[in-house]
Design goal:
It is a single chain. The chain is an all-alpha fold. The chain has four helices and no strands. It has helices spanning 2-16, 24-38, 50-61, 66-81. The longest helix is centred in the C-terminal third of the chain and has 16 residues, at 66-81. The chain is globular and about 30 Å long. InterPro entries: DUF4404.
Length: 84
């Protein structure tokens, strides 16, 4: 169930942070996060890790996109709940 919640939260994050409003760095972070979401059942082989990518995105968007940052924080909390 938490894995499905992560996928759902990521979809909400994409909807709240439209590509037209995202910087190149934010788009790259979203792509990294999407990679991790789709491969959530596998070990984290790629640097940065899922958590690092989310934390970087939150730091980058929290002042301009607080709702999107809150969604990303929810993803972090869900990851912690499942031990990632």
């Amino acid at each position: 169930m938490p894995k499905q919640e992560i996928k759902s939260l990521f979809q909400r994050l994409r909807e709240h942070l439209p590509e037209g409003e995202a910087s190149a760095q934010q788009k790259a972070l979203l792509d990294q996060i999407q990679y991790h979401v789709h491969n959530i059942d596998q070990p984290d082989p790629e640097d940065p890790t899922f958590r690092e990518s989310l934390e970087s995105l939150i730091a980058d968007i929290e002042s301009d996109h607080p709702k999107s940052a809150a969604i990303a924080r929810n993803i972090l909390e869900t990851l912690a709940a499942i031990g990632i």
